[in-house]
Amino acid sequence: MREWRKRLSKLLSSVVCLAGVRLDIVLLLLAFACKMWLFYRLVGMGVAASTFVISLLAIACLLLCGNLLPRAWRFPYVLLADAGLSLVLFIDTLYHSYFHDVTSVSLLRQIGQLGEIRESIVSLTNVAYAFYFLDLPLLIVAYRWKLKRVMLRCRDRAAKPARRLAALVLPVLLLVGTVIHVERTVSEVPGFLHARYSNKALLQALGIYHYHAYDAYQYTTLALGTKQVASSELADVRRWFAEQQSKLQPGPLFGRAKGQNVIVVQVESLQGFVVGLTVNGQEVTPHLNRLMREGLAFPHYYDQTHHGRTSDGEFTSLVSLYPSSIAGSIYFNFAENEFDALPKILKQHGYATLSAHAYTGAFWNRAVMHRNLGFEQSLFSEDLKPGKTIGWGLSDEDFFTQMSEKMERLPRPFFAFLITLSNHHPYELPPAYQTLDLGELEGTFLGHYLQSVHYTDQALGRLIELLKTNGLYDSSILVVYGDHDAGIPQAELQKLGIEPKYEREYDKVPMVLYSSALSELNGTVQQQVSGHLDLAPTLLYLLGISQEGHYFMGQRLFDFPDAERLVVFRDGSYVTQEHAFITQTGLFEDGRYYERISGRPLDPQAAREQFLAAQERLRLSDLMLEGDLYPVLGGVSEERR
Ligand code: GP9
Ligand code: MN
Question: What was the pLDDT predicted at 636?
Answer without folding.
Answer: 46
